[in-house]
Amino acid sequence: MWLDRLTAGAAAPSGSRESLAPTRPYSPLPRKNSQLAAPTQRTVSGLGLLATRSSTSLDLSANTSTTSLTTLPRQPNGSSLRFEQRPPPNVPDPVNVIKSILGNSEHGAVPEGWSRKQDGEISKEIDIGGLSLEEFVAQDISPRPAGNGFRVEISAKENRQKFEEFHKSIAECDQILTNVESYLTNFKAELGQVSAEIENLQARSTQLNAKLDNRRNVEKLLGPAVEEVSLSPFTVKSIAEGPIDETFVKALKEVEARSFIIEAKEEKSEQLKALQDLKPLLEDLKIKAIERIRDYIVAQIKALRSPNINAQVIQQQTFLRYKDIYAFLARNHPVLAEEIGQAYVNTMRWYYSSHFSRYQQALDALQIHAFDQHDLLGSEAPPTRRNVLGTSKPAPPPHDAFSLGRREDVLKSKNDTAIPAYLAEESKSAHYLEVPFWNFNQALIDNVSAEYSVITELFSTSTYHQISRRVVEIFEPTFAMGHNLTKGLVENTNDCLGVLLCVRLNQHFAFELQRRKVPVADSYINYTNILLWPRFQIVMDAHCESLRKVPAPTTSNRGAAAAFSLVSGGSSSDASKTSVAPHAITQRFGQFLQGILLLGAEAGGDDEPVSNSLVRLRTEYESLIGKLAKASGDASKRAKFLYNNYSLVLTIISDTRGKLADEQKEHFGGLVREMKK
Fold this sequence. Notes:
elongated; mainly alpha
């Protein structure tokens, strides 16, 4: 390696060496010609030291020249140093490194003047003996003894010690690298084992997945067949010992499902040992379930007869919640189911009868306004009257027998809750007859609707006619109670507006039952109408008769006719002068007609008795007014009198609406126009 460098350096021209000079590190020795370079290197190398020129090569080889020397090809011309890599800037100066190795100036430093002299002397004594530079360098030359105070041997020992330490460090690094290599080898072997285990696990996973798929396919095929001929122990225990709850109901459904499957397979003549073993067990479970269902329903029916019990709570929490148990009983033991159903009907019949009986007594305690013969259109009120139905009740406050007033609010109210019994008993105010009628029937309709819903769900296996018959049987005494209440309210009253209000309320109840789809109370509604309409016609006939009985005034008793006029005060002669004013009966008739028209706005028509009754009443009124007009004097006064009365009636009924109201307004409008001419 060094021989190549020297050869290349000797063959290179001086110009190339000068061009490479800036790339080489500084040397403390002066430059000589090429003949002096080789002996200098040879002499120093013989002492085991590195010359100034070779220090750079050593430094580069220690840092970065190893690769360059082994990989770079030999250059044919010029020195190979220009192809070497330049050391990084942070590398220490090789001269300083040599100085640190050789020591300070007193051990190895040579004065500059002495160095030149020695170089001059050495250059004179060099004799290569006709050898080439390679041969000269290759030959062994004994080291020149140190002189002039050099301590080369000491430096060599120090360098040797350092090199030995460096060798030891390299050996330790080799040992560490050997251990690392061993660890990596073992790690590679372990990775191979892990890879083999992973492959084994993958193979086992594939096998397990295949087995799982096969098992699922088999279970899909055999599962339903096995379930059809088996019964879980939990189901058996739930029916035999468990409480009556949702679990018990599910167990009943499972038992019925297995029974249907067995019956179907028996019809197909499938003889299976599992079916023969399961059928006796199912029969025993059915018998046990029927027994427990019977005891449970009977206990709940007995609870309904407890005092102060709310039947709807038991119905919702027991009967309707577990309605499937009665259906199971009806399918598997119809006779027992019919007996239990009849026991329920009898219990609820007693329940509603007793509760509505107490409620009717509470409504009877209400004070009702009394309407007698003095409350007719043609009757004159006496100075003192009795306004009560019985002597035991205190007299109610006075009332207007011909004006509807706010009594119509009972039809328009959105409150559909009947008054409680204790509030009815404590009430001290007087009411019209429609108040107890509405409260009793509203409570009855609500209970009928609720019970019909319960019966429909509970006895779902029964037909429509059977369900309707049960509900009617339950409420038969209650319906009779309601009819008696209605009959007692309207039988002896002349409150025509009150009776018509009850008719409209009864129609409202009929519409509500249709909306709720409860047909079982139709007979009750129809019979109530039978009680109300005849009484309405009777009262209307009484009003007509009272108008006919009004005495016709004559010339001698014109003052008496004037006494009936709306203008009061003054002497009889003054009254005679004012007899063209509207009559008192006209005011009553107008208010009464307005009330009937308001109540007939929704349902009035030719198919009701109201229209015919109004025609009769209007005819009687016009006949009476005609008779009264004859006592007014000449024709102009008679026309004025008739105009005033007809105009007052038309004004009163002007705010009414409906077909019937339009007919009446058209009629009286025509009379007013006729009298105005």
